[in-house]
Every structure is written in structure tokens, then in C-alpha cells.
């Protein structure tokens, strides 16, 4: 009981802090302060109930509704908290500098600014997260890429997160969008699900319809290891995708070859030691004179290559930060947040994620389907 009370102490205090700033300090006329506190309290109770019902193996219509409400408020709460903290800083500066002397008017203006900004921002973030993924087209020069593979189209999905609020209907739309790009290779770089195979087998079934001329390849992310990685590896293979567990394949077209390698999640070894990420094993025996594409869920896997040749690493995991301002904190763990960058001498493309984790909100980084075109890099000229 004590541990539960301690766990609730911080979120309770932060909710009270938001309520004091938005509803008590401004001194709104009756009944608006009471209405505000009532709505805030209801959201807090829904959040607590959402954590409780999420443990049920077989959700009901009511439990799904509670989960939706809890996830939406979890994201909205983070945005509200950020905005209220920022407003406190601005108000403090205005008050200290003497620019504003009417503290009551300042409190009302601050609260109105927060409510007037955050409410539409949350609505926008919801529509963005649930909307059609943006196709990001990027051309990547690759050394030693043969003429037969020049212009190769690689379409990447990452962080799909099929689960409580993303279902098979949504995934079907994503699959159709990917197939319409007529890819040569499809790469699915982890965090496919948030649930067990038993819970989500029917929801991930549309993956079987992914079509690419040279194969559809998949590597695990950290979330698969939270929900039974070995079971998911078997299920994804059953759906017809090529699972790369620290291994590679060599694809060929018109006499030109490309190594497509994949590693398990960067932290997999902490949960399932035999499935620890091994780039050296993934590339063992790969022809040295052939360009190499590596699928690795986390961008920081590039820091573990130890001099191995990798011409392009495809990663995800970061969601691009998903909800402002969390992208600034992602940089504390990962070397890159989104897009094409060079990490420890290796080109890494970091995908913003096709789905989302937790809150069905995206404020800033939109959902993505990456369409990368590999082209032959010009050979360096001598002096």
C-alpha cells in the first residue's frame, strides 16, 4: 500500500499544480473554477482506471473506452504540464521585471493562454497521429552499388505499435499505402506491436499482404521483447516476412548484389540473452565487396559496429520525439532523433515511426513511411 501511495504522489501533485495554476490562481467566477477542477479530477481518475484495465487479457467495450481516455489524457497531461511550466517562467519574468504589476490579470491571462493553446494543440496532435502517414522520400548514395541496383526503392516501416488503439483496419491502410509505392525491398524495423500474439494475431494479419520484388524483411524492437519476442518472431515469419535475427541475405538484380542484414534490438540481451544483438554475427560471411544495408531498431546500434562495413543502417525507436518537447530528451539516449545522419562513420536513417506509442497524439513529428532510393555513389577520384 505504501509503495502505491508513493507511486501516486508525483502524478497527483502535478495534477494539483496544473489545477491551481489554471483554475484557482486566476480566480475565475463561479462555477468555472469548480467545473475546471471537476474535469481535471475526472481525467485523473480515467488515467488511473486506464492503467488498471490495461492488465485485462480480454478487453471489453467499456475497458477499451477507458483505455482510449487514459491514453489521450496521458499525452494531453504532458502537454498541459509543459505549457503551465513555461507560463510560470514567462509570468515570473514579467512580474520580476515590472512589465506587469496586476498579478490577478497576469494569472488570468496566463491561464487563458495555456487553455487557448493546449486544447487545440491536443486536437491537432490527435488528428495528426491518426491520419495518413507522410511519405518521406530520400535519396542515398551508396558506394559499390552495381548498375543493376541503381535506383533501388527501399520502403521502411517502423514503430507500428499495433495494440490498444491501433488495429488491423488502420494497419490495412498502411499496407495499401506501402504497396502503392511499388517497393523493391520493404524493411520493418521493430516495435511492431504492443501486446501478445494471442491478443493481436488477427490485427497484424494485413502484414501478409506486403509486397516487394526483392523481399520483405523484419527485425525486432524492444517492445516485442516486452510481449514475447520468440512468439512474435514465429508469427511474423508465418505471415511471410523474412525475420533477420543477427543474420543476412544477399539480394541480386541484373548481376548487382546487396547484403540485407538485421540485428535484434540493441537491448534484447537484457531480456533474452541468446537473442542479444550481434552485428558481427549478422554480417559474418557477407561478401566484403558488396554494399551492406543493416536493419537495427535503435540508432545507437551504429555505435556497436566496431569497424564493420555498413553502408546504410535503417532504424526507428525515437518516434522523432512524438510529442513536443520530448524530442529534446530523446537526444540524451540516441545519437540522432530523425532523418539521415552519420553516426560513428555510418550513414543512419532514423524513422519517425508509422504508428505511435501510448497516447494517440503526435505534436510535431508526423507519422512516417520512408521511401529511400539507393543510387550509386560516384567513385572518389585520385589526386
Automatic annotation (TrEMBL):
UniProt-listed PANTHER family: PHOSPHODIESTERASE YAEI, TRANSMEMBRANE PROTEIN WITH METALLOPHOSPHOESTERASE DOMAIN-RELATED
Alphabetized Gene3D superfamilies for the sequence: 3.60.21.10
Taxonomic lineage of the native organism: Bacteria, Pseudomonadati, Myxococcota, Myxococcia, Myxococcales
Alphabetically ordered keywords of this record: Hydrolase, Membrane, Metal-binding, Transmembrane, Transmembrane helix
Transmembrane segments: 30-51, 71-99, 111-129
Protein's recorded name: Metallophosphoesterase
Record Pfam families: Metallophos
Coiled coil: none
Signal sequence residues: none
Recorded superkingdom: Bacteria
Chain ranges of the Calcineurin-like phosphoesterase domain: 152-320
InterPro entries listed in its UniProt record: Calcineurin-like_PHP (IPR004843), Metallo-depent_PP-like (IPR029052), Metallophosphoesterase_sf (IPR051158)
Amino acid at each position: 500500500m505504501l509503495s502505491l501511495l508513493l507511486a501516486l504522489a508525483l502524478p497527483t501533485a502535478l495534477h494539483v499544480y496544473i489545477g491551481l495554476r489554471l483554475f484557482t490562481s486566476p480566480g475565475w467566477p463561479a462555477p468555472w473554477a469548480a467545473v475546471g477542477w471537476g474535469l481535471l479530477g475526472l481525467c485523473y481518475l480515467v488515467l488511473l482506471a486506464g492503467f488498471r484495465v490495461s492488465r485485462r487479457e480480454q478487453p471489453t467495450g467499456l475497458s477499451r473506452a477507458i483505455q482510449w481516455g487514459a491514453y489521450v489524457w496521458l499525452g494531453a497531461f504532458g502537454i498541459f504540464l509543459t505549457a503551465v511550466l513555461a507560463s510560470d517562467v514567462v509570468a515570473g519574468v514579467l512580474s520580476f521585471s515590472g512589465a506587469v504589476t496586476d498579478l490577478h490579470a497576469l494569472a488570468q491571462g496566463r491561464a487563458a493562454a495555456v487553455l487557448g493553446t493546449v486544447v487545440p494543440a491536443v486536437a491537432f496532435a490527435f488528428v495528426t497521429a491518426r491520419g495518413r502517414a507522410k511519405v518521406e522520400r530520400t535519396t542515398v548514395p551508396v558506394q559499390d552499388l552495381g548498375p543493376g541496383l541503381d535506383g533501388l526503392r527501399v520502403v521502411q516501416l517502423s514503430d507500428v505499435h499495433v495494440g490498444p488503439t491501433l488495429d488491423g483496419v488502420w494497419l490495412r491502410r498502411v499496407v495499401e499505402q506501402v504497396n502503392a509505392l511499388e517497393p523493391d525491398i520493404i524493411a520493418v524495423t521493430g516495435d511492431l506491436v504492443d501486446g501478445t500474439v494471442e491478443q493481436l494475431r488477427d490485427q497484424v494479419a494485413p502484414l501478409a499482404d506486403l509486397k516487394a520484388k526483392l523481399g520483405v524483411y523484419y527485425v525486432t524492437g524492444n517492445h516485442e521483447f516486452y510481449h514475447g519476442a520468440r512468439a512474435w518472431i514465429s508469427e511474423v515469419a508465418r505471415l511471410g516476412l523474412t525475420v533477420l535475427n543477427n543474420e543476412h541475405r544477399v539480394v541480386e538484380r541484373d548481376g548487382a548484389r546487396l547484403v540485407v542484414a538485421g540485428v535484434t534490438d540493441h537491448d534484447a540481451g537484457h531480456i533474452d540473452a541468446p537473442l542479444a544483438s550481434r552485428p558481427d554475427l549478422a554480417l559474418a560471411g557477407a561478401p566484403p565487396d558488396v554494399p551492406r544495408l543493416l536493419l537495427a531498431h535503435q540508432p545507437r546500434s551504429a555505435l556497436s559496429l566496431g569497424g564493420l562495413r555498413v553502408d546504410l543502417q535503417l532504424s526507428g525507436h525515437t518516434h522523432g520525439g512524438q510529442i513536443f518537447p520530448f524530442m529534446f530528451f530523446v537526444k540524451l539516449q540516441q545519437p540522432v532523433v530523425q532523418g539521415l545522419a552519420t553516426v560513428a562513420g555510418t550513414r543512419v536513417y532514423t524513422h519517425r515511426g508509422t504508428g505511435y506509442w501510448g497516447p494517440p497524439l503526435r505534436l510535431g513529428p508526423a507519422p512516417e513511411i520512408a521511401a529511400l532510393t539507393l543510387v550509386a555513389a560516384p567513385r572518389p577520384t585520385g589526386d
